[in-house]
Design brief:
The structure is a homodimer of 353-residue chains. Chain A is of the alpha/beta class and 353 residues long. Helices cover 49% and strands 15% of the residues of chain A. Chain A folds into 2 domains: 27-154 and 245-285, D-Maltodextrin-Binding Protein, domain 2 (3-Layer(aba) Sandwich), CATH 3.40.190.170; 161-243 and 286-350, D-Maltodextrin-Binding Protein, domain 2 (3-Layer(aba) Sandwich), CATH 3.40.190.10. The first copy, chain A, has helices at 4-13, 18-32, 51-63, 84-90, 122-131, 134-142, 183-189, 200-209, 220-226, 253-257, 261-295, 305-325, 327-350, and strands spanning 34-40, 68-73, 95-98, 147-155, 161-163, 177-179, 194-196, 214-215, 234-237, 245-252, 299-302. The radius of gyration of chain A is 23 Å and the shape is globular.
Amino acid sequence: MHNRWGRLAVLGAAVLSFGALAALDATAQDDKRVRWKMHSAFGGRLTGLGPPGIQFSDLLKKMSEGRIDIKFFEPGALVPGLQGFDAVQTGSIESSWNSAGYFAGKEPAAAFYTAVPFGPQFDEFMAWYKKGGGRDIQWEIYKPYGVRPNVCNYVSPESSGWFRKEIKSLQDLKGLKMRFFGLGAQVMEKFGVSTQLLAAGDIYPALELGTIDATEFSNPAIDLDLGFFQVAKHYYFPGWHQQATFVEFQANQAKWDGLNETQKLLIDVACDANLTNTVADNTAAQPSALKKIAEKGVTLHRWSPEVLAALEKAWNEVLAEQSVKNANFKKIADSYLAFRKEYETWRKLGYIH
Amino acid sequence: MHNRWGRLAVLGAAVLSFGALAALDATAQDDKRVRWKMHSAFGGRLTGLGPPGIQFSDLLKKMSEGRIDIKFFEPGALVPGLQGFDAVQTGSIESSWNSAGYFAGKEPAAAFYTAVPFGPQFDEFMAWYKKGGGRDIQWEIYKPYGVRPNVCNYVSPESSGWFRKEIKSLQDLKGLKMRFFGLGAQVMEKFGVSTQLLAAGDIYPALELGTIDATEFSNPAIDLDLGFFQVAKHYYFPGWHQQATFVEFQANQAKWDGLNETQKLLIDVACDANLTNTVADNTAAQPSALKKIAEKGVTLHRWSPEVLAALEKAWNEVLAEQSVKNANFKKIADSYLAFRKEYETWRKLGYIH
């Protein structure tokens, strides 16, 4: 290479031993380069969930002029879709683009970092997460697993679900078979719904065959891609169970500790920037998707205030039950609810609703 | 210096001419270092407005390991507080931490990038700005001035104002003298309010002496610092005139064009990250400030839906008047209102209010 340092190095080499120079190169390399694999729980084409992981990876590469290369791998390319957390824990993969909710089998408390029913919007969540102690508790809870998470991607409010038949009252829910994710499933069970969790690709055929009567999956932009409008004609809002959803970047703790301060900072800054960009992308994508869905002959419904109040009451019961069962769950719930309580006065007073 | 490159350079110097080395240094400097002055329109201690400019400057320095140094200067240190835009335009200062609204004397349309009455929240604004064409129009409108702006700091919803006497109906506004900023002032004038713009430091004495009967300034956290609770006991919400407010980083266009792609990217990424952080900081700061203000014996009021509807109707008149007067204003208003109209269906359906 004929750049200036190359020339200086060549000249220098005349008076330094070859071994000394090689050692210098190796040190410089270790200091400056990060080459990590990042398993993704979401396909690179799954609107709002996968592409932001690719954006994050690309952004870091550009910010660092190629010195931080955290490569996005499709679900299944390294390990199966839902095994990212375990692989990061053992260190077989350095990092994962993942949902905290997929770790809720081991730690039910982790659900708070994806979404919980009747949870906050972006602004309130970020206030609790960054300034209200939310992230500190998260780091504490993940630490025994050797995983260092950081929220990195926002997803717009979900729909409450696709139903093959209209739901005229809560009584109509009784006996329904429905695909449902997370803590919201426990709320639905209280109304006599039989819930199960199905992967994205298995939902459409189950709805079509009548194996399930209803499903929630995500927001209009994502749901439109999955084609549910062809087999269910009643689409309900608001998605009380996931008003704002977050995806996180999970790093193996030992690998993370091996980074220098600038590398750590650049990765966290890329997440913060990705949050702003995913707020813009996701929010912009919903209105036109909703319009397209309506044009397919789907009826858009909004739950009445009474139905929402009944669902919220049931959620508060689930919250109390989980808090008794699990100390970490209680710890996060207490922090979260205390923050939300103080915030509520401000929210009601200060905002146009 | 005794690091390895220092030693190599010294050795190299023995066989390269001094002039050649000096030239190398100068080129390396141009490629890698940015040393800019950044005038701030807001004092470094003015909660929510000044400190985020300092955070932005510090963040960039750390991200670039000192190679991008955009130094924060207090209002008046380089030029008076409101003259940042002009100084950036002439190039006498490279950049400014500023409100687009302070440029509205030249370009009334710029107000859309600070806040307009009955405007969007953070998520909807970012969707319009980044994905709905808002930023493209902004760049086009600022271009003839040789200034390259980027939104860089979010500020929580303002209060509607501090009043010395309770306002029981819109008739009570008639004849009041009030400090008011921006397009909202024109709305207030329609209800018989005589408005004037006062700088932050001049508001308290004017309220105390009775030169004005009322003032709006900002949100609870900022207003608390300014002590208005001592001289006005009625605090109204919501701040319909500024639901979300933005501060921008303005760069001289020629200086901006002289940066390399990585430098440009790092500056824009620092702004995006700053947005997420200011959403967290600002949102977290309001509830406790509101509580403290109430504890000072201030009565918190919320405008009735009828009052808000009357204010919104008056705002729509102002919007129509301004659109007739100014082509750029009309251009932005058209883009903004079309976006908002499509978004409205989604907002009403998808969110818990």
